[in-house]
Amino acid sequence: MSVKVTRLSQAVVVPSEPTPAGKLSLSWLDRYPTQRALIESLHVFREGHEPSETIKRALAKALVYYYPIAGRLSQSESGELQVNCTGEGVWFIEASASCSLEDVDYLEYPLMVSKDELLPHPNKPTLEASDEDAMILLVQVTEFSCGGFVVGFRFSHAVADGPGAAQFMNAVGEIARGRTQPTVEPAWFRDAIPDPPKAPTGPLPRQSDVQLEYLAMDISTDYINHFKNQFHEQTGQRCSAFDVLIAKAWKSRTLAINFDPKTSIHLSFAMNARPLLHQKLPEKGGYYGNCYYIMRVSTTSEKITRSSIVEIVKMIKEGKKRLPSEFSRWANGELREDPYQVTSDYNTLLVSDWTRLGFAEVDYGWGPPVHVVPLTNLDYIATCILVKPSAHKPGARLITQCVTKGDLAAFHEGMMDLD
């Protein structure tokens, strides 16, 4: 069907009260080169009443507490990225769609509406590209004919990581529901993040000619429990849904691609480092800057293809156990390689877990989202994202973009196999 999205208005939303001015330093991790990207996502809500106005008012009040987000990215005299607290506001677009959410299957895959129609892209005559690059947050609320709506976010990774962005969105939701201030008090505390001496910084990912195919899979609770029970029976220990699904994806991908047996392959995943800095961060939480570490598990293609899922889960869990020691070594400048480097190397699978970030709990007054759609900007980096499924479906959803078209069928077949 033909779906038309009409942008009705666009403007900046400024804090509803005066806020502090000045320049704030960012941490080493905030300033890392790849953080200049925008975290893009779509949040689908089944119903609402004048959601654009409700969210706009709540956003203005939330920015009083999160005033750096209303500022602009700039460079210090020494050339380092920083936040200039100008209070200029966040870009906000109101839009309407010519159909119901049911008509477009609640934005289940494949998307029946282009993501760029639902994400906040300001009209260029209104906003210069350089001004858009300096913005920290852009928001679009698209109302559908059924009364449902979609919130599209583009959030600067230099100012917030996934949990930090979700913390802010939940604050907006709380205020929209009638609270006068957020439950969690925001904390800047960028000096709590280590600034390692002579920390190695790898090159930015190079664009590749490899075209990776998108595939979304809903995984049943029975499927997850099958592998979790196997792990418990063989080891006497417990593991998470993330552990088993990522192990399964890594093995299925390796088999589908059919690497040479001696090829070195890598699994990389982000881990929250906040617990490691609890003595430097506020006891009640609230820190919303970048605070994670990229853990890497490496082995050979032959090892993965010959291992059971239980054995691969063991590798992943052993990798997780290394977090305190590796983070400490990185913080002390003892690592020779850059753990934060993102690579387009086809041998590397980059995975992330969105189920515990807090996006699925955001509520503007009409309940949490039906589901959240994370979006990737770089189509040539092999990725796998675990998200909560649609509200009416148990289990988990795996969003992958990690194999070429020729390997897609074999990868999907491998994922469906219970061995």
How many distinct folded domains?
Answer: 2
- Structural class category: alpha+beta
The CATH homologous superfamily of the largest domain is termed Chloramphenicol acetyltransferase-like domain
Q: Compute the separation of the termini in Å.
A: 40 Å
> Rounded to an integer, what's the Rg over CA atoms?
22 Å
Could you give the order of strands across the largest sheet? Answer: 1-6-7-8-3-13
| CATH fold-level topology of the largest domain | Chloramphenicol Acetyltransferase
Poorly predicted ranges:
none
| Element-by-element helix/strand order | EEEHEEEHHEEHEHHEEHHHEEEEH
General form: globular
Topology:
Layout: E1 5-13, E2 22-25, E3 38-45, H1 51-65, E4 72-75, E5 81-85, E6 90-97, H2 115-118, H3 129-134, E7 137-143, E8 149-156, H4 162-176, E9 212-219, H5 221-235, H6 241-257, E10 264-272, E11 292-300, H7 301-306, H8 309-321, H9 323-331, E12 348-353, E13 371-375, E14 383-387, E15 396-404, H10 405-416
Parallel strand pairs: 6-7, 10-12, 12-14
Antiparallel strand pairs: 1-6, 2-5, 3-8, 3-13, 4-5, 7-8, 9-15, 10-11, 14-15
Helix pairs in contact: 1-4, 6-8, 6-10
